[in-house]
Amino acid sequence: MATIKERFKSTSDVVAAEIKELLKEHGSKKIGEVTLSQIYQGMRGITGLVTETSLLDAQEGIRFRGYSIPELQQKLPKANGGTEPLPEGLFHLMLLGELPSDDDVHDITANWQRRSHVPNHVFAAIEALPLDSHPMTQFVVAIMALQTESKFAERYAKGMAKKDYWEAVFDDSMDLIARLPRVAAYIYRRKYKNEDHIHPDGLLDWAGNFAHMLGYEDETFRELMRLYMTIHADHEGGNVSAHTTHLVGSALSDPYLSLAAGMNGLAGPLHGLANQEVIKWILEMREELGVELPGNVQIEAYVKKTLNEGKVVPGYGHAVLRKTDPRFAAQMEFGKKHMPDDPLVQTVWNIYETVPPILQSLGKIKNPWPNVDAHSGALLVHYGLVEYEFYTVLFGVSRALGVLASLCWDRALGFPLERPKSVTTELVKDWLKGEGEIWGD
Ligand code: NMX
Ligand code: MLT
User: Which of 231, 229, 263 is nearest to 244 (CA)?
Assistant: First the structure.
């Protein structure tokens, strides 16, 4: 049977040929217009990227190769006795565009186990940082320290031909995904558990083993990790972490350099760091109110106070989505199944009832509904993973699946250096007067 690498090569060759034909015939077709507001306001709504792994619909939310999250929960292989999808299966789907069999998923688990060795200097690089460094800082430093292992960088230095780029990027991506859980768990145990590190368990799947190395042996926590690692993996190509990884990769920076760049973007509070901000905000609210389960009237007053202080309500709003994030809904369903009486989880649900009408009443917020980060922390706290500064690292380990699958596609399709045109406000003013040209070549 062909390996996943061979299957990726034959699949991507077909798509590359299709794109060549498509561009030959339709390359000059216009796909839209760009307004001045859009270039000043975060390029919302400008279609400027091709990302094969997933597609976001503003009303419906994310679909991975056409499959919604509930469909993935139904169709992707599970661990023995489990009900949540294995992230190995999602990676297969994103990379090859096909649902995997149980054997496909076992092969990926085994493949990542074989590649999972982390060299000692990576642990030394983490140890060189002060213990109070943010876990995301430690994570990015570890990814950069791992870069010594890059096959792409090594082969490029020896004069690799362009047609071989995809293969070195594929190997680096697989190695990196295999190693990230060990690195992340090391950071967690170092910072929060007295450096009491836990060896990998070679009998477990990728997410189950990650849960084990973090120190959580509860089977439902492993199920949560499988779900968490699946739903956070990808959100089409324009989000900050995916776009950054793609952009940096377009300079032929290897997957380690590219992922580290993407993870620096994920560490921003408007992006992945929002998951820590949410739980911090809820805990502060509970402390200020002096109650474990605040009611809707109390939450309403606290939300208004947050807004009056000129802060955002973390976990709410989205640049593209205009409805409740299906990733929020999937986590809510998990909460209803496994911990319906947990007061923190119930607080998240009370906030869900209270916040949208308040945000809506402000009139300026395009999406008053919760995003993925509004729910994740409360589920983790339930199992004892209370160290919320670590949450974005969990997001990052998952996001690597999507952005690295995409990076493999970028190189397989021969995508060029990304370099959009920028303008100055001086030029914009001249152009409005009919002088000067605002369009690039
Ligand atoms: N609380 C308060 N104000 C908000 C919120 C919110 N949750 N969301 C948007 N706004 C404000 C926004 O700051 C802007 O204000 P101003 O015009 O004064 O600058 C205005 O509403 C219009 O913003 P939008 O066009 O609706 O949102 P935009 O696309 O610019 O930003 C986010 C999207 C996600 C950055 C924004 O909704 C936000 O800051 N949310 C809170 C942080 C968060 O949860 N981020 C996680 C996103 C998911 N992820 O994991 O990456
Ligand atoms: C993500 O998962 O990347 C976030 O929801 C942000 C986005 O899509 O812009």
Answer: 263
**Known catalytic membership, residue 271:** yes
The counts of H helices and E strands in the chain are 20, 2
**What does each C-alpha distance from 62 to 5, 382, 412 come to in angstroms?**
26, 26, 24
Kindly give the distance from the C-alpha atom of residue 124 to the centroid of ligand 2, in angstroms, as a whole number.
32
Has 318 been annotated as catalytic? yes
Nearest-ligand number for the alpha carbon of 56? 2
57 phi and psi angles, rounded to 5 deg: -105, 130
pLDDT means over runs of 10, the chain (441 residues): 96 98 98 96 97 98 98 98 98 98 98 98 98 99 98 98 98 98 99 98 98 98 98 98 99 99 99 98 97 96 98 98 98 98 98 98 98 98 98 99 99 98 96 89 68
| Interatomic CA distance for residues 427 and 433, integer angstroms | 10
What are the two backbone dihedrals, phi and then psi, of residue 437, each rounded to the nearest 5 degrees? -110, 125
Distance CA 312, CA 301 (A): 14
Half-sphere exposure in the Cβ direction for 205 (13 Å, CA)? 28
Ligand 2 midpoint to CA 375 (Å): 14
Among 171, 354, 340, which residue's Cα sits nearest to residue 254? 171
Q: Dig out the tokens for 186 from the structure.
A: 């090391």
Among 17, 142, 414, 20, which Cα is nearest to 252's?
414
Torsion angle, CA of 33/38/44/50, rounded to 10 degrees?
50
